[in-house]
Structures are given as structure tokens and as C-alpha cells.
Write a structure and sequence with these properties.
The protein has about 270 residues and is of the alpha/beta class. The chain is about 40% helix and about 20% strand. The relative contact order is 0.14.
């Protein structure tokens, strides 16, 4: 069974991840687990009454079980409600190991922490599943991905993203690929992966294939291409170079996660 983990942050009906995740679960007959994380800050644990406040928050969140199951019933999907207390990033990453895709809100420029990473981007570094990140500005939450852009560079990361996106790619009317795979020195690196043949075997036909943009800001070019084709989804692998260097210097993945106005399915 296709399993979705939906990261529900604010326990409200208008939660972006909730709406998109349940629509996706309905469309693909997936099992929908709603997850609410009661975040713990180690620096505050010694403060009076903090443990009591966390206990109250956790009990209130657990009491939303009926609310979640009613949402699942209205969408015609099976599901479960889970509440966990702990450090946000390890909690989300650990639970995602049991999901095919984790659905969450796409971080934006206002979410970054002092170290330059938002919670969700940090979780993506160690997540057990690919993440479908939905921007808060999205208008259509039906998750009907008719036009999909795939950013491919023959890495394990982009392969993981492509495999996770297969159900969506098969249903799409148009699948375009931007190919950035570069042949390495023969004998010193593995050959390029036969992605087109692999996709054909899985029932996916590519409408167009283009080379990666020759620009210093690949992330910006990818988003421009996605907007030009009116893509409903961008599929990509994360961190083609050193993950630390990407975040310190501002790489392709960082740019996309910060500026995307379309859902992004990304894997590491």
C-alpha cells in the first residue's frame, strides 16, 4: 500500500500539508498518517512548568484524533493520527522512514534558523523518505499533477526522487525532463544511468528532454522552466555536491526550496 505521512503543523482545517496530503491520498488510494510534533527545546527543559506545558500540548493534540479520522472519512481514505514529542528534526526524519512520501509545507525565506537551515530542510538531510513540499501560496490543492518537470543528473538523489514520483509521472499528461547528467572519465566513474529506458518500462513517456541550463544559478533557471511550462510539480534530487557546501554557498536545492511556487518532490 502507498503510504503518506502528512506533517500537520497547526491543527487547523486550512493547514496546507493537510489539504494537499489528503487530496493526494484520495487520488492514489494511499494510507494517510497525520503527524503532529510537539517540539521540545532542550534549552528550556530546566525552566519551571515547561514539562507541564508540553504535557498539556501533547494531550490536546492527541485529542484531535477524531478530527483527523473525520477528515480521512470525508476523503474516503484509511488513515491514523499520531502525536510525538521530541526534537523536531529527528522526530520527523525518524517517522518518515515508514512512509513512501512525506507531505509537508514548503519552507520559505522567513523560516530559516540562525544556522541558515529551516526545520524541514534539516529534516530532509536525514529523512527516511522523499518529501513532497507544498508552497503556502498554492491555489489548487487537488494535487492533480498534469504537467511535471523532472530535474535529472544521474545521481542517487535524483533516482530516489524519480522512483518516489512514479505514481504521479504515470498519471501526468506531460512529463518534461531537464537533463544535467555529465559523462565522467571512463573507467573512473560509473556510467550514466539509462533513465529514459527505465521510465519507459514503468509506463512513463517523456514529452521533451532538455539539457540543464548553462547558468550560474541553475535553481533559478529550473523554476523559470517550471513556470514556463505551467508545471504542477517539480521532481528533483537534493544536493548534487557536498551538502554542507550547498547550504553554505547557496546551491540549486536551497534556491528551489526557498523560492518555489509549485510543489516540489525532493529526495536525498
Amino acid at each position: 500500500m502507498f503510504e503518506l505521512l502528512i506533517n500537520v503543523e497547526n491543527l487547523r482545517d486550512d493547514d496546507i500539508a493537510l489539504q494537499a496530503g489528503l487530496a493526494l491520498a484520495k487520488r492514489y488510494n494511499a494510507y494517510a498518517t497525520g503527524l503532529n510534533i510537539i517540539e521540545v527545546y532542550p534549552s528550556t527543559m530546566a525552566m519551571p512548568d515547561v514539562a507541564q506545558v508540553l504535557e498539556i500540548e501533547e494531550e490536546e493534540a492527541k485529542a484531535r484524533d477524531t478530527w483527523w479520522m473525520e477528515k480521512c472519512r470525508r476523503h474516503g481514505v484509511d488513515g491514523a493520527w499520531e502525536v510525538t514529542r521530541g526534537l523536531y528534526v529527528p522526530a520527523l526524519a525518524r517517522r518518515s522512514c515508514m512512509a513512501d512520501v512525506t507531505v509537508s509545507r514548503l519552507p520559505n525565506g522567513n523560516d530559516t534558523l540562525s544556522g541558515g537551515l529551516d526545520h524541514l530542510s534539516r529534516a530532509l538531510l536525514i529523512s527516511g523518505s522523499p518529501m513532497l513540499l507544498v508552497p503556502g501560496s498554492i491555489k489548487d490543492l487537488s494535487c492533480k499533477f498534469e504537467r511535471i518537470l523532472v530535474a535529472w543528473n544521474s545521481t542517487e538523489e535524483s533516482t530516489h526522487a524519480l522512483r518516489a514520483a512514479l505514481p504521479f509521472l504515470r498519471d501526468a499528461a506531460t512529463v518534461c525532463m531537464v537533463d544535467g547528467a555529465v559523462s565522467e572519465v571512463r573507467g573512473l566513474a560509473p556510467p550514466l544511468l539509462p533513465v529514459r529506458e527505465w521510465l519507459q518500462r514503468h509506463g512513463v513517456t517523456l514529452s521533451t528532454v532538455r539539457d540543464f541550463p548553462t547558468t550560474s544559478c541553475v535553481g533559478e533557471a529550473l523554476l523559470e522552466h517550471a513556470y514556463a511550462m505551467q508545471a504542477d510539480l517539480l521532481v528533483m534530487g537534493a544536493w548534487g555536491h557536498s551538502r554542507v557546501n550547498e547550504w553554505m554557498l547557496g546551491g540549486t536545492t536551497r534556491h528551489v526550496l526557498k523560492h518555489a511556487k509549485v510543489p516540489v518532490l525532493v529526495a536525498h
